[in-house]
Design brief:
Blueprint: H1 2-27, E1 39-40, E2 46-47, E3 57-61, H2 67-82, E4 89-94, H3 98-108, E5 113-117, E6 131-135, E7 141-146, H4 154-164
C-alpha cells in the first residue's frame, strides 16, 4: 500500500497542485490596485487613473507582440465608438517602450487611450495577454477576463452596456 501511495497518489497530488497554480496564474485575472500602478502618457507625463473618475473605464493590459491583443485593438476602437453615449473610456496599457505605443496611437487616433506602465506586468501579477477589466462610473469592477473576447458581438456590447450603467 505504501508503494502505491508513493508511486501514484503523491505524483497525482503534485500534478494537481502544479495545474492549480498554473490555472490561477494564467487563467484568472489578478486583483490589481489601480491607484498604485505607475503610468505615463506617450509624452512621458505621469497619469493617474483617478483622472478618469466618474466615467466607465475599460482597461486592457496588452503586448504588441501578442497576436490576439493586436487583433482586439480595432474591435476595442469600434466598441468605444458604439458606447460613446455611455462615455466609456478605453485605456490600453503596455509595459513596452513608448515608441511602440506611439506607432499604435498614430494608427488608432483618439479612439483608444494608450498608456505606458512603468512597472513590468509581471511585477503587477499580469501574466496573460490581453487581461481586461471594466469599471463602472462609480469605480466598481464589473468585469474581468484574460484572453480576448468578441467585442463586436451584439450580445457582448449589450452586456457591457448593462454592466456600466
Amino acid at each position: 500500500m505504501r508503494k502505491y501511495i508513493l508511486s501514484v497518489v503523491v505524483p497525482l497530488c503534485l500534478v494537481l497542485a502544479v495545474a492549480g497554480f498554473l490555472y490561477k496564474r494564467y487563467r484568472i485575472p489578478p486583483t490589481i490596485d489601480l491607484p498604485v500602478i505607475a503610468l505615463t502618457d506617450l509624452s512621458g507625463n505621469k497619469v493617474s487613473l483617478q483622472s478618469y473618475a466618474g466615467h466607465p473605464l475599460f482597461i486592457s493590459f496588452f503586448a504588441t507582440w501578442c497576436g490576439p491583443c493586436m487583433r482586439e485593438l480595432p474591435e476595442l476602437g469600434d466598441l468605444q465608438s458604439k458606447l460613446s453615449d455611455q462615455k466609456l473610456q478605453i485605456i490600453c496599457i503596455c509595459d513596452e517602450p513608448t515608441e511602440k505605443l506611439q506607432a499604435l496611437k498614430a494608427r488608432f487616433g483618439d479612439r483608444l487611450i494608450f498608456l505606458h506602465s512603468e512597472k513590468s506586468f509581471h511585477d503587477i501579477k499580469i501574466y496573460t495577454y490581453p487581461t481586461n477589466y471594466i469599471f463602472n462610473a462609480k469605480g466598481l469592477k464589473v468585469y474581468e477576463q484574460v484572453n480576448p473576447e468578441d467585442w463586436e458581438s451584439t450580445d457582448v456590447i449589450n452586456r457591457i452596456r448593462q454592466l456600466i450603467q
